[in-house]
Design a protein that fits this description.
Distance between the termini: 56 Å
Helix content: 25-40%
Largest sheet: 8 strands, mixed
Number of strands: 8
Shape: globular
CATH class: Alpha Beta
Length: about 180
């Protein structure tokens, strides 16, 4: 009985720390295609670069740690092809010794810093409002070569719409990055 009550309270957001819990359900269409990659050395970075290279109109990024040169270069290449590219990064990217924030900013790609949270830990790329790249994979060399992480690529307009709402919410409270 106590476990059931705890679960009910947790679902209602009345956890011990009184921190609200938000959730929603999205019915993912049966025809949604997905691909999964694992690291270390599982091709996660190349899979992300391949998806970026296929983008036709828009790439929206949310990242915690972003130091991957291949992903940054792929975003720049997309930008040069006329693709709209915007990145929202965690505040740690303002002070990190190296971050792709400065590279993207200096390349003319709008970069925003999300400082509203202890950490903005999202790792998301939304492509053309129909493909979502997500998972534990930070956009870093260490994530590809040293860490045990995952990337999930989902082709679903319904799912992309939900991620887009969340992306826009975070952009709404983020501050435009001005470079170093």
């Amino acid at each position: 009985m106590k476990l059931r009550l705890f679960r009910l309270l947790l679902c209602l957001g009345v956890a011990i720390l009184a921190v609200p819990v938000f959730s929603f359900a999205v019915d993912v269409p049966i025809n949604t295609t997905s691909k999964v990659y694992f690291s270390p050395n599982g091709g996660c970075t190349q899979a992300i670069v391949n998806e970026i290279d296929r983008a036709k109109s828009e790439i929206l990024v949310q990242a915690y740690s972003f130091t991957s040169a291949p992903i940054a270069k792929a975003l720049l290449s997309a930008h040069k092809r006329g693709i709209k590219v915007i990145a929202i990064l965690d505040k740690s990217n303002k002070t990190a010794r190296y971050s792709s924030a400065t590279f993207l900013y200096n390349s003319g790609i709008p970069v925003f810093i999300d400082s509203a949270h202890a950490i903005a830990h999202n790792k998301i790329i939304i492509l053309d409002r129909e493909t979502v790249i997500t998972g534990s994979f930070n956009f870093t060399k260490a994530a590809e070569n040293k860490n045990a992480e995952n990337v999930l690529i989902l082709k679903s307009k319904a799912l992309a719409k939900e991620y887009l709402k969340n992306w826009e919410e975070h952009k709404g409270h983020s501050i435009e990055y001005g470079g170093k």
